[in-house]
Amino acid sequence: MQVAQAMTRKVHICHPGQAIRDCARLMGELDTGVQPVQADHRLIGMITDRDIAVRAVAAGKGPDTPVSEVMSRGVLYCFDDQDLDHIAKSMGNARVRRVPVVDRQKHLVGILSLGDVALNAPLAAGQAVRGVSKRGGPHSQASAAKRTTAAAR
User: Fold this and answer.
1) pTM more than 0.70
2) CATH code, residues 3-133
């Protein structure tokens, strides 16, 4: 099965100069935790509810902070004609729950979530979830807690 058969097609975007308040409001309306960030018809990043909470609110930034200051820039993406099982494995290895989907001209055409994978390829989803759920690595809160605890001594 190809990614195009499983992905969510209706994707709303944010822009880098837009206030995080606007993106958070859009996330609330759409009941989603992520929005692709686009400039000049190119995907340049992703902003998540976690980016807003950790990189903005916890850092003391206000609601008018531009998306570009808190968004994730290293965007992993996939093509709509790629094999779903292969992309699910890549999501697990990269520890990401959602990836934007582009066509071969690199236009944003959708987003693929672990939920989309689970509905269409349950075995692949299980492997992806195992990878995403591993402790440690660059996004580990446990690592951050250890650094904080060690620094407090």
Assistant:
1) yes
2) 3.10.580.10
pLDDT by residue for the chain (153 residues), tens digit each?
999 999 999 899 999 999 999 999 999 999 999 999 999 888 999 999 999 999 999 999 999 999 999 999 888 899 999 999 999 989 988 888 899 999 998 889 999 998 899 888 877 777 788 787 777 655 433 333 333 223 333
Which distant-in-sequence residues (6+ apart) come within 8 Å of 6 by Cβ?
84, 112, 116, 117, 119, 120, 121
Distance separating alpha carbons of residues 127 and 146, to the nearest angstrom: 28
Distance CA 151, CA 112 (A): 39
**CA-to-CA distance for 70 and 58, rounded, in angstroms?**
11
Residue type, 82: Q
